[in-house]
């Protein structure tokens, strides 16, 4: 008989009562998470229509699921959506949207007003370079606010985004971007990592030559910003596109042949992210949510998706080793600390004490990328306290969220993921 692992955390009555999951569950007449999840996979039309309605996607559609054929299932035919418009909707200009730091820059804050203005200027710059609906915009950019604005500008046009991290070598980037024939390449001059500067100018030239796209440069290493003449004045408008219109292209790792291009639609990612960020991540207005990632991993896209809620996000570009991320957590008032199992293992090995000498506001830790060991689970509770919600998740590039992972109303068992996600009919 398998021994049941110990419970490390149980949500308080107050936390359960305040969870977005609890409100959604009650609104649809389900007594517990298990019943809600069963409904979500047995009544696909009812569940996804409920997500559409709960988060006021708006507009009409002919049916939730027109065809169940695989491949070829047709979701929400007749709907017109805009991921970027939904993300900006109702956000006061003065509220913080992004907090960011890097090895090249001190911590800074972008309000929704600034993000809206920068997105509009980049959008106008892309239009001036001939970018329109369906065109691909590729980015060789780091995890900084300008990259978020560039993605939102691309999405607002109904163009298609794809990014690679600046530490990727030329061949890795060409193998990805050449497949999708981009209209333009947004690229930095260089970056700093571990205190060392890396000039990428020559690599960018090589990439651009191979993929046949003109380059728009962002002076990141030299601090000069977008190249002269790129940013333009113009309104921030939003193309309304079909539900399955491409939003971005992610890639498999490329361990067998070329990386496989995985296309996600505007509507599908909008509903999946609304579900994940509001219900599973339990994002609230006071939350400052961080995940350590580069722009070459789907967790960057995931983190941007948090902006669909009332929470703000925290970005970091640079070497995460040692104490730097724990210092960032204190400096930014981070409430949710997202990382990898490997980072937790490294913190354990280095005998780091995150709470020692720091005024941390963390109430949750998220882990993905690989399985977190039972000892890693225990370390989080030993170091960050018994009231910390630790959620380990798994899913990835094909859904840009997770099939299994966190549920804020369920207990955490040592060494275990909490549950199957809503809408995900996972069997083992």
Salient structural properties:
33% helix, 428 residues, 7-stranded mixed β-sheet, globular, 25 strands, Rossmann fold, alpha/beta
Structure in words:
With 428 residues, the chain is of the alpha/beta class. It has a single domain, classed as ANL, N-terminal domain (Rossmann fold, 3-Layer(aba) Sandwich). Helices cover 33% and strands 23% of the residues. The chain contains 14 helices and 25 strands. The strands form eight sheets. The chain has a seven-stranded mixed β-sheet, with helices on both faces. Helix 3 (33-42) packs across helix 4, helix 6 packs across helix 7 (145-156) and helix 8 packs parallel to helix 9 (201-211). It starts with 6 loop residues before the first strand and ends in an 8-residue tail after the last strand.
Q: In total, how many beta strands? A: 25
Strand content bin: 15-25%
- Tell me the overall shape: globular
Q: In what order do the strands lie side by side in the largest sheet? A: 6-5-18-17-19-20-21
Q: Ranges with pLDDT <50 over ≥5 residues?
A: none
CATH topology: the name is Rossmann fold
- Cα Rg: 21 Å
Q: How many individual helices?
A: 14
Report the sheet with the most strands, covering strand number, pairing sense and barrel closure.
Answer: 7 strands, mixed
Q: Distance between termini?
A: 19 Å
At the fourth CATH level, what is the homologous superfamily?
ANL, N-terminal domain
Number of domains: 1
Q: Which range best describes the helical content: under 10%, 10-25%, 25-40%, 40-55%, 55-70% or over 70%?
A: 25-40%
Q: From the helix content, strand content and strand pairing, which structural class follows?
A: alpha/beta
State the CATH architecture: 3-Layer(aba) Sandwich
Q: What is the mean pLDDT? A: 96
According to CATH, what is the class?
A: Alpha Beta
């Amino acid at each position: 008989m398998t021994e049941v692992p110990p419970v490390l955390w149980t949500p308080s009555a107050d936390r359960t009562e305040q969870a977005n999951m609890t409100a959604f569950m009650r609104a649809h007449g389900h007594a517990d998470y298990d019943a809600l999840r069963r409904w979500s996979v047995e009544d696909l039309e009812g569940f996804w229509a409920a997500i559409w309605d709960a988060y006021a996607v708006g507009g009409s559609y002919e049916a939730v699921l027109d065809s169940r054929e695989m491949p070829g299932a047709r979701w929400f035919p007749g709907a017109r959506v805009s991921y970027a418009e939904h993300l900006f909707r109702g956000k006061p200009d003065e509220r913080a949207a992004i907090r960011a730091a890097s090895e090249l820059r001190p911590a800074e804050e972008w309000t929704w007003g600034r993000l809206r203005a920068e997105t509009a200027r980049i959008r106008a710059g892309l239009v001036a370079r001939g970018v329109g609906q369906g065109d691909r915009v590729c980015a060789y950019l780091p995890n900084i606010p300008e990259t978020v604005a560039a993605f939102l500008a691309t999405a607002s046009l109904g163009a298609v985004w794809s990014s690679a991290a600046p530490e990727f070598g030329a061949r890795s980037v060409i193998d990805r971007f050449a497949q999708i024939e981009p209209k333009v390449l947004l690229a930095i001059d260089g970056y700093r990592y571990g205190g060392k500067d890396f000039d990428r100018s020559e690599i960018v030239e090589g990439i651009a030559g191979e993929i046949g796209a003109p380059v728009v440069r962002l002076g990141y290493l030299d601090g000069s910003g977008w190249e002269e003449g790129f940013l333009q004045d113009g309104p921030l408008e939003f193309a309304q596109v079909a539900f399955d219109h491409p939003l971005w292209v992610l890639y498999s790792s490329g361990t067998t042949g070329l990386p496989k291009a995985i296309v996600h639609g505007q509507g599908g990612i909008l509903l999946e992210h609304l579900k994940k960020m509001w219900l599973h991540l339990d994002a609230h207005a006071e939350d400052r949510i961080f995940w350590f990632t580069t722009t070459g991993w789907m967790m960057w896209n995931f983190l941007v998706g948090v902006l669909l809620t009332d929470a703000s996000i925290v970005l970091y570009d640079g070497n995460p080793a040692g104490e730097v991320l724990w210092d960032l957590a204190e400096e930014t008032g981070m409430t949710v600390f997202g990382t990898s199992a490997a980072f937790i293992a490294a913190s354990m090995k280095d005998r780091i004490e995150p709470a020692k000498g720091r005024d941390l506001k963390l109430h949750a830790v998220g882990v993905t990328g690989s399985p977190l060991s039972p000892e890693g689970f225990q370390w989080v509770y030993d170091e960050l306290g018994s009231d910390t919600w630790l959620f380990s998740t798994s899913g990835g590039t094909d859904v840009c969220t997770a099939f299994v992972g966190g549920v804020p109303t369920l207990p955490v068992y040592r060494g275990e993921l909490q549950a199957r996600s809503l809408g995900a009919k996972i069997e083992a």
